[in-house]
Design goal:
The complex is a heterodimer of chains A (about 240) and B (about 300).
Chain A (H helix, E strand, L loop, with lengths): L1 H16 L2 H20 L2 H4 L5 H4 L2 H13 L1 H9 L1 H5 L6 H21 L2 H10 L4 H26 L5 H17 L3 H8 L4 H9 L2 H9 L5 H24 L4
Helix pairs in contact in A: 1-8, 2-5, 5-10, 5-11, 8-10, 8-15, 10-11, 10-14, 10-15, 12-13, 14-15
Chain B lengths: L1 E10 L2 E11 L4 E5 L6 H8 L7 E6 L2 E2 L4 H6 L1 E4 L11 H11 L4 H15 L14 H13 L5 E5 L7 H14 L4 E5 L3 H7 L2 E6 L2 E6 L1 H6 L7 E5 L1 H13 L3 E7 L3 E6 L6 H11 L3 E6 L4 H12 L1
Parallel strand pairs in B: 3-8, 3-9, 6-7, 7-8
Antiparallel strand pairs in B: 1-2, 1-4, 4-5, 9-10, 11-13, 11-14, 12-13
The chains are: A mainly alpha (about 240), B alpha/beta (about 300).
Chain lengths: ~240, ~300
């Protein structure tokens, strides 16, 4: 536990030691705000909720979260510190979990800094703050899912660009699988069960369910399992090719 | 305290380490010598649990590196090749991170940090990002990292690489001071380092141990071991060479330049008294006479060449 904490602290501080964190936060907040305002028509809708804000999160995360995750392991490989890390008395699992939690906490910070929009909607109207909380929870969980995918692919390579592109592509698959486009494409030839399975793997479906204010166990379990599965995969990848 | 049994490591079809066995006891400083690519670093990485051995086993303080890696690593301080460190951290925050992982707390943590910073002589750069430090300081930060928890076993991959002669001297002195309490392995391609600090030498070539002994024993394998160099006036040099060659325990005499003779002994025996007695008896105008310990680099070349 203390090892996870030590790695977590180091990793989180690592984000803020370089301009990466600040660039990321600014871009995230600007783009999230702009999408909400211009595309989501936050003000014109005259609805006291944050639907127009949350609806873009899956698409926003698609590019921004792999950017947080790409350095997690690729950089350790590139600089050789991975050799240092794994000759310290640290287990693979502790390192994987500590790093993931640090990245997740950073994503949490980014998300929390969108609070002005929550203040605005409370100022302008009388929103259902429970639903907004659910939206934030769903968004945070979804970020965790994308991050776990990104961390896993970051462990695969020492090249951060490759890590970014591959994990963005995999995240895209996990997002798109719930869209009408894919589902109707599937329905032409695939059995219903398969289409349902593919559809149920979508971040979009589960996130939309939560962000509407309905926190259901299965959606929580879904994101939880995605995170755990990809972290296990992350551990296996590291174990197999630590020295590559 | 360090034990390697038939340690073997393949990378795909390539055999990087091939049945390397050795043990290092407390108080010993083992020098790993070998040409580049001979498997020194791979052996160290496997020994320290970064790479999983394809066959064979290694243990540190009795803890098998594969079966009980965490316990083994607790007793180990390791400086990887090139001294990698988190470049965006300062030495201070870096060492604090290591202290956290090493479960040092309270007073012990403060004392160890102070002591290590002093030993590795990095107090002046504690708050500069590691990426901005010179090669010598980076190396010493890496060394501080390895020493922080006062480990029983130290494995240092090229600890003096990139240091200037003063820093090299400091690091060797440090290793010498610590050696009675620890089992230490260093790898190096500097032969003078071996004679300076190692109590034992292993030469590795093509992944195999090709020689194992004390630096003195290694030097004794040299053709130059106990050879005597005699500087003498030019006009008697040729005559002296003839007379020396006629002696029983002298194998051969070669001339270096006009006035220098190198006298090689038979079977590496000490011949300096024989040579100087003869010189005195014959009243040769001798300017200088000295015996050699042997050339380690020559032994090194010989051994690694025949193995390759």
């Amino acid at each position: 536990m203390s090892n996870i904490w030590a790695i977590f602290k180091r990793e989180l501080r690592g984000y803020f030691a370089t301009p990466v964190a600040y660039v990321f936060l600014v871009v995230f907040l600007c783009v999230a705000g702009a999408l909400n305002h211009f595309v989501g028509n936050f003000f014109d809708r005259e609805q006291a909720d944050l639907q127009s804000f949350f609806v873009f999160h899956p698409w926003l995360y698609l590019f921004l979260v792999p950017a947080i995750a790409m350095r997690l392991w690729a950089e350790e490989r590139k600089t050789g510190t991975i050799e240092l890390l794994f000759t310290l008395p640290v287990s693979l699992t502790q390192a994987v979990v500590g790093k993931f939690l640090a990245a997740w906490a950073f994503a949490g910070v980014a998300l929390a800094l969108t609070f002005p929009i929550w203040l605005a909607v409370n100022k302008l109207g009388d929103p259902d703050n429970g639903a907004i909380f659910a939206g934030y929870l769903g968004s945070f969980l979804m970020a965790g899912g994308y991050l776990a995918i990104g961390a896993c692919f970051s462990a695969w390579t020492k090249n951060q660009v490759i890590a970014f592109v591959v994990s963005a592509a995999v995240c895209l698959i996990f997002t798109l699988s719930g869209t009408q486009f894919v589902l109707s494409f599937m329905s032409g030839w695939a059995p219903q069960a398969l289409a349902d399975t593919i559809g149920s793997l979508s971040f979009l479906t589960h996130f939309n369910a939560i962000s509407k204010g309905v926190i259901e166990l299965r959606d929580l379990v879904f994101f939880g399992s995605v995170i755990v599965l990809f972290l296990i995969a992350n551990t296996i990848v590291l174990d197999l090719e630590k020295a590559e | 305290m360090i034990q390697a049994d038939a340690l073997t490591k393949y990378f795909g079809p390539i055999k990087a380490v091939d049945g390397v066995s050795f043990s290092v006891a407390k108080g010993e400083v083992l020098g790993f010598l070998g040409p580049n690519g001979a498997g020194k670093s791979t052996t160290m990485k496997t020994l320290c649990g970064f790479l999983t051995p394809t066959a064979g086993s290694a243990s540190i303080c009795g803890h098998d590196i594969v079966d009980a890696p965490i316990e083994a690593k607790k007793h180990l301080g390791y400086l990887p090749e090139g001294a990698p460190a988190y470049a965006d951290m300062t030495p201070r925050s870096y060492l604090r991170f290591i202290a956290g992982i090493r479960s040092l707390g309270g007073n012990e943590r403060r004392e160890r940090l102070e002591r290590t910073i002093e030993m590795s002589n990095i107090a002046s750069v504690l708050d500069q990002p590691i990426e901005t430090l010179s090669k010598g300081f980076k190396r010493r930060v890496g060394l501080a990292q390895a020493l922080l928890h006062d480990p029983d076993v130290l494995v240092l991959d090229e600890p003096t690489d990139g240091l200037d002669p003063n820093q090299k001297y400091e690091v060797r002195k440090l290793i010498g001071e610590m050696s009675p309490e620890k089992a230490i392995i260093i790898s190096t391609h500097l032969l003078e380092e071996v004679t300076a600090i190692c109590s034992r030498v292993i030469i590795i070539a093509d992944g195999r141990v090709v020689a194992d002994g004390t630096p003195d024993e290694m030097e004794a394998r040299s053709r130059h071991h106990n050879a005597v160099t005699l500087r003498i006036e030019k006009k008697v040099a040729a005559a002296a060479a003839k007379e020396l060659e006629a002696l029983d325990n002298i194998a051969s005499v070669t001339a270096r330049g006009a006035s220098e003779l190198i006298v090689y002994p038979k079977d590496g025996k000490s011949i300096i008294t024989t040579v100087s007695d003869l010189a005195r008896a014959k009243n040769w105008p001798v300017e200088e006479v000295y015996a050699e310990r042997g050339h380690l680099d020559e032994v090194f070349r010989e051994i690694t060449k025949t193995a390759a």
